[in-house]
Amino acid sequence: MTPRILVLLLVVLLPATGLAQGFRPPPFMAGVPGRAQMQAIEMQRHQARTLLYREALEEIRRNPAVVEVRECAAGDDEQSLCLPKAAGGGVPAAAAAQPTARRIALLVGNFQYRHPIPPLETPPHDVDRIAAALGRKLGFEVRVLKNATKADMVRAVAALAREVQPADSVFVYYAGHGYLMDDTNMGYWIPVDGSVKTAAQWISNSDISKLLGAIPARQLMLVSDSCFSGTLAREQSLGGEAAPPGEVLRKRSVLVLSSGGEEPVSDEGKDGHSIFAWHFLRSLDQLGGTTLGREVFKVVRKGVSDDFPQQPQYGAVVSAGHEAGGEYLFEAPAR
């Protein structure tokens, strides 16, 4: 069967089988096709998603504010669904002189979605294994949320914003469905209460940036394993030599490592994990001492792109307070 015929067959099969199987095509009879063919297949999956979400997407076009989370006001308490105010710029002088205090990780694995949004297989295994590795290898206090609603996710981040201090290091991981609107180039996470009829329970990249901006930790990393998650990392790429760790800790650093660029990412698994999570776990296993986030990114990007036509991305979120010269440090605690 030629690649062209294979792709044409997938165009027919995806509406019937892709939505029912997590947007996965039938198994390849002659092995995985080349990069160009695979990219064509992935775009067919995106078209299937677009068809599935068409009513929610039409609502966003009519009223983009439908997804917005309001900013917290004076009368709001811990149960209010609102975005805490931004933490402010820079690192206080007292915190800049301190080593990393607490290490706190929040991991969200969404997999049981409302019909007709298909379930996902790998997120619960991914977050469990990554949480264990962060705790064992890097001394993180880990908190795992599975099948989180929009309210669950916003309140969990708001709780972090109230709790952490500037000298802390925070790691946030999201695995679940995502979507990118082609016309506006705005990306969204889709929590488990997300709907194909309305986008009210979706979370926009804009609000994700505001949530990150509310966390006052000087060290903050978001890892996002979802479709089109690369849009989160595109604010500013990192170039040049990194500053020494002591200088890095004087900066506010807000980094995003995403499983893909501005293309759909693989729903296929590897040993029970997504391809991205599998390689991220391997990179954690190799850590020792202090490792820059960009070094972890290079290892993950090579592993993922060697396995699949998917390009992880790494970038700074300036809108959340990232300062020039900042970097995320994977620090193994002293024994």
What can you tell me about this protein's structure?
The protein has a single domain (53-331), classed as Rossmann fold (3-Layer(aba) Sandwich). The strands form four sheets. Strands 2-1-3-7-8-12 form a six-stranded mixed beta sheet, sandwiched between helices. The chain has a three-stranded antiparallel beta sheet with strand order 4-5-6. The chain has a two-stranded antiparallel sheet with strand order 9-10. It is α/β, with parallel strands linked by helices and 335 residues long. The radius of gyration is 20 Å and the shape is globular. Mean pLDDT is 85; it is low at 1-31. The chain contains ten helices and 13 strands. The termini are far apart. The chain is 35% helix and 17% strand.
Protein topology:
Layout: H1 3-18, H2 35-52, H3 54-62, H4 93-96, E1 103-109, H5 123-138, E2 141-146, H6 150-163, E3 169-175, E4 177-180, E5 187-190, E6 203-204, H7 205-214, E7 219-225, H8 245-248, E8 253-258, E9 269-270, E10 273-274, H9 275-285, E11 290-292, H10 293-307, E12 313-316, E13 329-331
Parallel strand pairs: 1-2, 1-3, 3-7, 7-8
Antiparallel strand pairs: 4-5, 5-6, 8-12, 9-10, 11-13
Helix pairs in contact: 1-2, 5-9, 9-10
Question: Can you tell me the residue ranges where pLDDT is under 50 for at least 5 consecutive residues?
Answer: 1-31
Question: What is the ordering of alpha helices and beta strands?
Answer: HHHHEHEHEEEEHEHEEEHEHEE
Here the CATH topology equals: Rossmann fold
Q: Helical stretch count?
A: 10
Strand order of the largest sheet: 2-1-3-7-8-12
How much beta, percentage-wise? 15-25%
Rg is: 20 Å
Helix content: 25-40%
